[in-house]
Design brief:
Elements (H helix, E strand, L loop, with lengths): L1 E8 L2 E6 L2 E8 L3 H11 L4 E5 H5 L6 H10 L4 E4 L5 H10 L3 E4 L2 H4 L1 H11 L4 E10 L2 E6 L4 E6 H8 L6 E6 L11 H10 L4 E5 L5 H10 L3 E4 L1 H4 L5 H10 L1
Parallel strand pairs: 1-4, 1-12, 4-5, 5-6, 6-7, 7-10, 10-11, 11-12
Antiparallel strand pairs: 1-2, 2-3, 7-8, 8-9
Helix pairs in contact: 8-9, 9-11
């Protein structure tokens, strides 16, 4: 499916260039109006990121997310600094449908294994963001500021016995660039991990990019900047996905 994404800082929709907080672009949009329009058009899922919470859990935008969730009937998945069961329960109680776990999947693996078991494989999404060098898909964490020695494949294989089902995979070099997605990456991991429903993120600029991603076999495409900058409409994106 097509999943529109909104990254929020202090309630304002922004896009970071390759995850860099100092290189951000603000968008003067009415998020509530846009969500209502997306609901009418048939969008089935929304991706929200709490960039404030990702940086400092004391600055979580709880009130804003509560308002958003109460305003729309579109199922919402949310990420950004979610590090413990208290965080997960808080968002689920607000009405969030899926929880996106990033850095904790690397730094706190035993706990995350437990969360998949407790909350179910349909609730927990692992966000695995990679820097690719010599075809090695190395995961970066903590807002992409810290590289690890762990590969994408290692983490998927580690969590798969617990029933891991959803993985949001971003090629960091593509994020926020409108330079086109890394189709080679997605073809490779979809072929290798047939039990995983991959969400592709990063680089989508045209409707042709959506077509090419559908052909890789990913389950969903997360689209941020290109929708915010009206490179195409949500109707065109949805029709393009459905027609492939």
């Amino acid at each position: 499916m097509i999943i529109p994404a909104f990254d929020l800082i202090n309630g304002t929709t922004v896009r970071l260039y390759q995850g860099n907080y100092s290189n951000q672009k603000k968008y003067d949009i009415n998020l509530y109006k846009r969500l209502k329009d997306y609901e009418i058009k048939g969008v089935k899922n929304i991706h929200l990121v709490d960039l404030d919470g990702a940086k400092n859990i004391k600055k979580r935008q709880i009130r804003i997310f509560k308002d958003i969730i109460s305003y729309t009937d579109i199922p919402i998945q949310i990420g950004g600094g979610i590090r413990n069961e208290e965080d997960i329960n808080m968002f689920l109680n607000l009405g969030v449908k899926k929880i996106v776990i990033g850095s904790s999947a690397i730094k706190n693996r035993v706990e995350v294994k437990k969360w998949i078991k407790i909350y179910g494989s349909n609730t927990i999404i692992l966000a695995l963001d990679v820097i690719i060098k010599n075809n090695k898909k190395e995961i970066a964490i903590n807002g992409w500021q810290e590289q690890t020695n762990t590969t994408l494949e290692e983490i998927i294989e580690y969590f798969s016995p617990m029933g891991l089902k959803h993985v949001l995979c971003t090629d960091i070099s593509k994020d926020g660039t409108l330079s086109g997605p890394n189709n080679v990456l997605y073809k490779e991991i979809v072929k290798k991990f047939k039990h995983i429903e991959f969400q592709a993120s990063g680089g989508v600029a045209t409707l042709k990019d959506i077509v090419s991603l559908k052909e890789t076999g990913v389950s969903s495409v997360i689209i941020g900047r290109s929708l915010l900058e009206n490179k195409f409409t949500i109707q065109e994106a949805l029709k393009c996905w459905q027609n492939e």
